[in-house]
Design brief:
Layout (H helix, E strand, L loop, with lengths): L1 H7 L3 H29 L3 H6 L6 H33 L3 H4 L4 H6 L4 H18 L1 H29 L5 H8 L8 H14 L6 H7 L7 H30 L12 H12 L4 H33 L5 H21 L14 H28 L3 H7 L8 H27 L6
Helix pairs in contact: 1-12, 2-10, 2-11, 2-12, 2-17, 2-18, 4-7, 4-14, 4-15, 4-16, 7-8, 7-14, 7-15, 8-12, 8-14, 9-12, 12-13, 13-14, 14-15, 15-16, 16-18
């Protein structure tokens, strides 16, 4: 998602805005959520409820967001698994053919099967719990993810003619700057740093009291942003090279990965091997996100509904299998269902990411910035942290974030109603 947004919103200017937002807005909201989770030791619903029952709705909002996302995210994960299998079985040439992607997602059974394979893999890891499943998988997947990202990024920027793509990423063109650049950067910070979904509250609840929260957040900021930038360097220079410098090729959304890149792999030496490595990499990345999203729902069932972990995972597995159906079939037998003129998957993505995520972030800022106050969070953060960016935290949570998030929610509603156009 990050390379596509960098490509769509002007390259260097989007990257600059993203970095500023990640290290101010993203930092502040992540500090709030991790501190809230560790302070209470509970899932999002219980964490908000700990301060007052009237705030429990903010926790349920994050549960709703994760429930919406997990169904369609499994579908996209299934697409990645399909392409991974295609390349690992030496059929990459077929994936490069015109119409291959649209033909695949328009089928009835095959995309659903791949989505279920992806989802079931995630749930097997989740049954193992935090240390036995999530942490163990992360220790294997994350170093592999970083190494593969770096290798492919180096390869991409070393291609003849890739320099134009590198310049596009690194040199800000301020003529491309607009409010939509900011909206998209904030949305990607939410998505990439797992904010306002309850994920960081949930993981914060597992965090040892001896850990320095600010140091943890700093590590996440740095490594998450670095991996995102590596992803941009993997894709954008290569697309510049093999499109003959046609920047219009960058503005293709999902097609950038599933349509354009297979053509890139087809035209380079060892392209089948590189394509296989690339889609294994993306599958790893997608799987870790899927695990995090569903951990919120599992922890909620365990904390609030008092369900044991294994039954909770099984219940959620059934729910996700059902949620996969409309998102996948929306490109085939249910393609006539077009809420607000969107496919079912795009509509679910719009509801979750364009409306509910900024609304959840706004709720957190108002609750702690103006109602509960910061003292409980200060107490938790300063157990082991010097809290060097305390002033940034206060200004962002109390003033900047509420204004920005309120503007984003309003703008997205007006856009979909056709009242404004950015």
């Amino acid at each position: 998602r990050f390379p596509y947004l960098v490509a769509k919103y002007g390259g260097g200017i989007f990257l600059l805005v993203y970095i500023i937002i990640a290290f101010t807005f993203g930092y502040a909201l992540m500090m709030l959520e991790i501190a809230l989770g560790r302070r209470t030791g509970l899932s999002p619903v219980g964490a908000y409820k700990k301060f007052s029952k009237k705030y429990a709705w903010a926790g349920w909002l994050t549960v709703l967001i994760c429930t919406i996302i997990t169904g369609y995210y499994a579908v996209i994960g299934g697409w990645v698994v399909k392409y991974m299998v295609v390349y690992l079985t030496s059929q990459g040439g077929a994936a490069a053919a015109d119409g291959y992607f649209n033909s695949f997602i328009g089928k009835t059974g095959e995309p659903i099967i791949y989505a279920l394979i992806f989802a079931l893999t995630g749930f097997v890891i989740l049954i193992g719990g935090v240390k036995g499943g999530i942490e163990k998988a992360g220790k294997i997947l994350m170093p592999v993810l970083a190494a593969m990202s770096l290798g492919l990024a180096v390869y991409s920027v070393c291609l003849p003619g890739a320099l134009e793509g590198v310049k596009y990423i690194l040199i800000p063109d301020f003529s491309n700057f607009g409010f939509e650049t900011v909206i998209s950067a904030v949305g990607q910070v939410f998505y990439s740093m797992s904010l306002a979904m309850g994920i960081m509250i949930t993981y914060g609840s597992y965090l040892d009291k001896k850990q320095d929260i600010e140091k943890c957040v700093s590590h996440i900021e740095i490594f998450d942003t670095a991996i995102a930038i590596l992803a941009a360097f993997m894709i954008i220079p290569a697309v510049f090279v093999f499109s003959g410098g046609d920047s219009a090729q960058l503005n293709q959304g999902a097609g950038l990965m599933f349509v354009t890149l297979p053509k890139v792999f087809e035209s380079i030496p060892f392209g089948a091997v590189i394509g296989g490595v690339f889609f294994v990499l993306v599958a790893f990345a997608a799987l870790t996100s899927f695990i995090s999203i569903n951990e919120v729902l599992i922890s909620t069932m365990c904390d609030v509904m008092k369900v044991k972990r294994t039954p909770a995972v099984i219940i959620l597995m059934v729910v996700v299998c059902l949620l996969v159906l409309p998102s996948s079939l929306g490109y085939g037998v249910l393609d006539f269902v077009q809420p607000l003129g969107m496919s079912v998957l795009d509509f679910m993505d719009f509801i979750a990411n364009s409306l509910l995520l900024p609304l959840a972030g706004l709720s957190s800022c108002v609750i702690f910035g103006w109602l509960v106050g910061f003292d409980p969070l200060y107490d938790e953060i300063e157990l082991n942290s010097r809290f060097k960016r305390k002033k940034v935290f206060v200004v962002v949570i109390k003033y900047i974030a509420p204004i920005l998030l309120g503007a984003i929610v309003l703008t997205n509603i007006l856009q979909v109603l056709g009242i404004v156009s950015l």
